[in-house]
């Protein structure tokens, strides 16, 4: 599993899902299967969903996940359509649902995906590369200056949003911006060094990825569906990686009369986990329990 992705907050996820033998669980962001593997080995039955077909193929070829498997159902799809996907797989009234909203290590490191500024690659950033939707390059080269600034400000919370938008529009006059290296160089030139360990291009890459994959609207769409699919006393666990997602989850949990919030403050990774898996540094876990049968 570690070849694909190291699952974050694994111990905490299992604790808050309260995995019980024989019960049904949904891992709506299967990724490399690390969380799913642990749920199965704790006795649960899992519906694993992912919109990244490379992730699905990895799990299917992993000898620890023999397919078919009576305790694992693997399905392609976007969790924005969770109710429909779950109904087709006969997963209703489930005991727990997990949403891990981060990128897998494989996606970050994969040369052709364009998620990372650490290696030169085409600016794609689509989670699902089988759909004909706009890529990050399409947005960078097609949006106007104010549209770019708003994208960086809202989805990246980027303080240099206006300056970056101006720099990108100037750069486009000499040719399209098509690679991660080109974009990272522009951002570094405008922003310079940031405080701490964050790379200058982190927030811009985050904003583009969120926009390309419509991540905020998908998150808003899945939360009520997940709540409906839970049985009484079922648990919903969400792991987010930036404040915009975390606020949406926090506000949703607090606004639902049928949900009991189990984490007044989000759980973060321990220093030991961050040392082993630096990607866990920004992870935040929130959990809630359904208190009534709907």
Quick tags:
alpha/beta; 8-stranded mixed sheet; 13 helices; 43% helix
N-to-C CA distance: 37 Å
Q: Over all CA atoms, what is the radius of gyration?
A: 19 Å
How many domains comprise the coordinates? 2
Stretches where pLDDT is under 50 for at least 5 consecutive residues are none
* Percentage of β-strand residues: 15-25%
Average of pLDDT: 91
Estimate the global geometry from the Cα principal axes.
Answer: globular
- CATH fold label of the largest domain: Rossmann fold
- Which CATH top level class of the largest domain fits? Alpha Beta
Number of strands: 8
Number of alpha- plus pi-helical segments:
13
The CATH superfamily of the largest domain is known as Vaccinia Virus protein VP39
The SSE order reads HEHEHEHEHHHHHHHEHEEHE
The CATH architecture category of the largest domain equals 3-Layer(aba) Sandwich
Report on the structure:
Helix content is 43%, strand content 15%. With 294 residues, it is α/β, with parallel strands linked by helices. It folds into 2 domains: 10-106 and 215-290, Vaccinia Virus protein VP39 (Rossmann fold); 112-213, Putative methyltransferase TM0872, insert domain (DNA polymerase, domain 1, Orthogonal Bundle), CATH 1.10.150.170. Strands 1, 2, 3, 4, 5, 6, 7 and 8 form an 8-stranded mixed beta sheet that branches. α3 links the parallel β2 (45-50) and β3 (72-76). α7 (145-156) packs across α10 (202-213) and α8 packs across α9. The radius of gyration is 19 Å and the shape is globular.
């Amino acid at each position: 599993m570690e070849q694909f992705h190291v699952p974050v907050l694994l111990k905490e996820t299992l604790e808050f899902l309260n995995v019980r033998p024989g019960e049904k669980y949904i891992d709506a962001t299967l990724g490399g299967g690390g969380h799913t593997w642990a749920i199965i080995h704790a006795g649960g039955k899992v519906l694993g969903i992912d919109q990244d077909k490379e992730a699905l193929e990895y799990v299917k070829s992993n000898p620890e996940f023999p397919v078919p498997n009576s305790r694992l159902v693997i399905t392609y799809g976007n969790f924005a359509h969770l109710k429909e996907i779950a109904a087709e797989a006969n997963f209703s009234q489930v005991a727990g649902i997990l949403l891990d909203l981060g990128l897998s290590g494989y996606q970050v490191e994969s040369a052709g995906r364009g998620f990372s500024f650490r290696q030169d690659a085409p600016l794609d950033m689509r989670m699902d590369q089988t759909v004909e939707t706009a890529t990050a390059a399409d947005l960078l080269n097609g949006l106007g200056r104010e549209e770019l600034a708003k994208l960086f400000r809202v989805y990246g919370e980027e303080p240099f949003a206006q300056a970056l938008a101006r720099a990108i529009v100037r750069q486009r006059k000499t040719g399209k911006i098509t690679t991660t290296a080109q974009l990272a160089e522009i951002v570094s030139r405008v922003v310079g060094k940031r405080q701490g360990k964050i790379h200058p291009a982190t927030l811009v890459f985050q904003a583009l990825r969120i926009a390309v994959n419509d991540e905020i609207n998908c998150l808003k769409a899945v939360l009520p569906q997940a709540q409906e699919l839970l049985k009484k006393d079922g648990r919903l666990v969400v792991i987010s990686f930036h404040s915009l997602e975390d606020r949406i989850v926090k506000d949703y949990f607090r606004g639902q009369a049928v949900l009991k919030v189990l984490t007044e403050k989000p759980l973060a990774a321990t220093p030991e986990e961050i040392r082993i898996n630096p990607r866990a540094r920004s992870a935040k876990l929130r959990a809630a329990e359904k208190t009534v049968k709907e």
